[in-house]
Amino acid sequence: MRTAVTDISLGEAQIRAGDRVVVWIPSINRDETVFADAERFVVDRGSNPHLSFGGGPHYCVGAALARLEAKHAFGALVTRTRAIELATDRVTWRPALALRSLTELRVTTS
């Protein structure tokens, strides 16, 4: 959380000097002004300026390892299955103020 030192307009919000503000990380990659159908998971989304690993001096030091792990995990999954589908409409999210993550995602494979 930060404290604004001057008045500023940010989008449609008016932030006054002294107001406490915070970047709401869980919403960064679901901004409807940036992503069409922002709440939907789209693996092959063409334009994807996501900020999952931060940016600039705050770029995640573990980003390269996370990408490598994801590449190998999804690669193994794709070679071992013909199809992956959601097994239910219910997806369970971990309640958190900082980082949004799944606690459960049931799928079926064939």
Explained architecture:
It is a single chain. This protein has 110 residues and is α+β, with helices and mostly antiparallel strands. It has a two-stranded antiparallel sheet with strand order 1-4. A two-stranded antiparallel sheet has the order 2-3. The radius of gyration is 18 Å and the shape is elongated. It has one domain (13-109). Helix content is 16%, strand content 21%. It has one helix at 63-80; strands at residues 2-3, 8-10, 13-15, 20-21, 84-86, 92-94, 101-104, 107-109.
Short description:
With 110 residues, the chain is of the alpha+beta class. 16% of the residues lie in helices and 21% in strands.
Short key terms for the protein model shown above:
single chain, 110 residues, alpha+beta, two-stranded antiparallel ribbon, 1 helix, 8 strands, 16% helix, 21% strand, elongated
Annotate the secondary structure layout.
Elements lengths: L1 E2 L4 E3 L2 E3 L4 E2 L41 H18 L3 E3 L5 E3 L6 E4 L2 E3 L1
Antiparallel strand pairs: 1-4, 2-3, 5-8, 6-7
Helix % is 10-25%
Strand order of the largest sheet: 1-4
Extract low-pLDDT stretches. Answer: none
Order of helices and strands: EEEEHEEEE
Separation, N- and C-terminal Cα atoms: 46 Å
